[in-house]
UniProtKB/TrEMBL annotation:
Record-linked InterPro entries: LysR-type_TF_proteobact-type (IPR058163), LysR_HTH_N (IPR000847), LysR_subst-bd (IPR005119), WH-like_DNA-bd_sf (IPR036388), WH_DNA-bd_sf (IPR036390)
Molecular-function GO terms, alphabetical: DNA-binding transcription factor activity; sequence-specific DNA binding
UniProt domain HTH lysR-type: residue ranges: 1-59
One GO BP annotation of this record: DNA-templated transcription
Keyword DNA-binding: yes
Alphabetical list of Gene3D superfamilies matching this protein: 3.40.190.290, Winged helix-like DNA-binding domain superfamily/Winged helix DNA-binding domain
Keywords from the UniProt entry: DNA-binding, Transcription, Transcription regulation
Originating organism: Proteobacteria bacterium 228
Protein name: LysR family transcriptional regulator
Record family assignment: Belongs to the LysR transcriptional regulatory family.
Length: 329
């Protein structure tokens, strides 16, 4: 009996909830999976799975065995990936989680180039605006905007900076006047990103304006908010108000005159948020060629986007961190 193959079939049966589903996942005949799991039980001298005409359930012994087998196969997979990463070229599986809009606007246009450059990588990209469970979701690398809260057992590296801009459409400003000072925003409709509590009825949000040693905190008001930046971009383009939004999302609109940037001489952030891009991965991925290759690719893609639509911006505002020298937290 091939013990490793038997373990894989047993785990697949438990995780899929039955022999037929496991066979489909493994692209094998159901009879092959059933025979192999039965042979494993005979070898161990115990029943791992309860069978009935309707379902397959795990016995108490089977649950113990499953946990240990899962750990063994995970450690074997980690060993395989670390050996692959010890070569001169990134290779093997790379599972990446990206914020939805960032993935579409920054990564997608250049993804073909990355795939051609690293043909031995098996890239799997998931887009999500929530914080990923790296271990539970089998994610190798998560790219996130802002400074994520410290998490036990997770490395956080700052890999780039970005800006948040206050923008409005020319039509809105013509109808309602252009705010000259941050306090003028109190008389305007502000479109706000819902960062934390979706159930809160408090429509205020603090926008922090910094210039040299001066700081102003403005509790803006408005009747429109969303937890999706694309929806806010559509609303500001439809003359619905003034929005605080990531620069890379509206840079092309500003360059084309569809939107006008306000308070360009201020650094603006919601509440105490930081304008940075962070890379999250597990400690055993330190020095990974696969992860460093994707981080380098991301930084280059972000720089290209800015060069295309923001030739008037000064480079120091968007200085990218060296991916091999960034501090780890």
């Amino acid at each position: 009996m091939d013990k490793l193959l038997a373990l894989k079939m047993f785990l697949a049966t438990v995780e899929a909830g039955g022999f037929s589903a496991a066979a489909r996942r493994l692209d094998l005949a159901t009879s092959s999976v059933t025979r192999m799991v039965s042979a494993l039980e005979q070898d161990l001298g115990t029943v791992l799975l309860n069978r009935s005409t309707r379902q397959v359930t795990v016995t108490e012994a089977g649950e113990v065995y499953y946990q240990q087998a899962r750990r063994i196969l995970d450690e074997l997979a980690d060993a395989d990936e670390q050996v692959r990463d010890s070569g001169s070229e990134p290779s093997g599986p790379l599972r990446v989680s990206l914020p939805t809009t960032l993935g579409r606007d920054v990564i997608a246009p250049h993804l073909g180039e990355f795939i051609r450059r690293y043909p031995r990588l098996e890239l799997d990209i998931t887009v999500s605006d929530s914080i990923s469970d790296l271990l539970g979701d089998s994610i190798d690398l998560a790219i996130r905007l802002g400074a994520p809260a410290p998490m036990d057992g997770v490395v956080s590296r700052t890999i780039s900076g970005y800006q948040r801009w206050v923008v409005a459409s020319p039509a809105y400003l013509a109808a309602h006047g252009e705010p000259r000072q941050p306090t003028d925003l109190l008389d305007h409709r502000c479109l706000r990103f819902n960062y934390v509590n979706a159930n809160s009825r408090d429509l205020r949000q603090v926008w922090t304006f910094r210039r040299q040693q001066e700081e102003q905190r403005i509790a803006v008001n408005g009747s429109y908010r969303s937890n999706n930046a694309e929806i806010l971009r559509a609303a500001v383009l439809a003359d619905a108000g003034i929005v605080l939004i990531s620069d890379w999302l509206v840079s092309a609109d500003v360059a084309a005159g569809r939107l006008q940037r306000l308070f360009a001489d201020y650094e603006v952030n919601p509440n105490n948020a930081r304008s940075q891009v962070s890379a999250l991965y597990l400690p055993n991925q330190r020095g990974s060629l696969r992860i460093n290759a994707f981080i380098d690719f991301f930084i280059t893609a972000l720089q290209r986007l800015r060069q295309q639509v923001e030739p008037y911006q000064t480079a120091e505002l968007y200085q990218s961190a060296d991916p091999y020298q960034t501090a780890e937290k």
